[in-house]
Amino acid sequence: MLRCRxxxxxxxxxxxxKHMGRHCSKQIRRGVGQLTLVEHALCPLxxxxxxxxxxxxxxxxxxxxxxxxxxxxxxxxxxPLGLSPKDEFYLWGLLAITLADPNTDGELHATRHYCLRxxxxxxxxSKRGGRQYRDFSSAIERLAAVRYQCDRFYDPIRAEHRxxxxxxxxxxxxxxxESSRAWRFVWDPVFFEFALASGGSLRFDLDVFRKLDSAxxxxxxxxxxxxxxxxxxxxxxxxxFAEQTLGIAPTVSLRDKKSRLRxxxxxxxxxxxISSGDISRLRIGAYAMVLHRGPIFDDRATGEDTYESxxxxxxxELGFDLSGAN
Length: 326
Prior knowledge:
The chain is α+β, with helices and mostly antiparallel strands. 30% of the residues lie in helices and 26% in strands. It has ten helices and 14 strands. A hairpin with a 5-residue loop joins strand 4 and strand 5. Helix 7 crosses helix 9. It starts with 16 loop residues before the first strand and ends in a 9-residue tail after the last helix.
């Protein structure tokens, strides 16, 4: 029986809430990314180029095969309604909310207020409606239309690279903006299988992610993957990293690419993602960067790991007392 009038969050974020007379200590709100998808940009970094109808974004990424030979994977992202780099916040956030349920079946039923509150976009004192709701709805529409193809996608279940094609999710939502009924998200089974599998996803600090600009967000996720086992990145080619991982247009000058990457480095150092690192010249027209892991990856979440069902909120709307909800 639930007796707490102020529900405690699970790993998505607890911040000094009272539970049965006890204080829940601060927890890190987690996002979940898919390992191959963070290797490359899902759309151009410039929103003026990315939020266009019938967008086709193509990217490449490098990986090592079983013989430790370097190979190249190619990805194509079809975006009928366009796609904003900011939409990735909702993609990884909703995936984390879904995976927080230990009995998840690949579906999420939750109100938009619940989703945005769990993602840290709004709080209990925020008014319902407004820009946050509109941004969320627009992002969901764009993300649900996306179709992804890749010729060298790593399958963590079969431990091999495979050709894949999948979407992210489908949805069913109320037509009335003022409705407090739950939204239904159904994840693509192929994509969700990869994200659910051990070794198929990575977890990161969603609050830090939310504070970063779009380029720094993408860089953060790629570094989270690289820093999982190592304290130092391999030598990263500036041009390739800027274009393929961050999504900066090839037409942008190398000088501007270096400038943008240095801004990302400074932002990530400020948020403790990296401790040090810079860009150095290898030869004329060729630059690389090496970055050192920051203390954020040594942090450990604390507090109770209490799962809050997304269906509690609709029950409250119907007049149920949380103390009597099972």
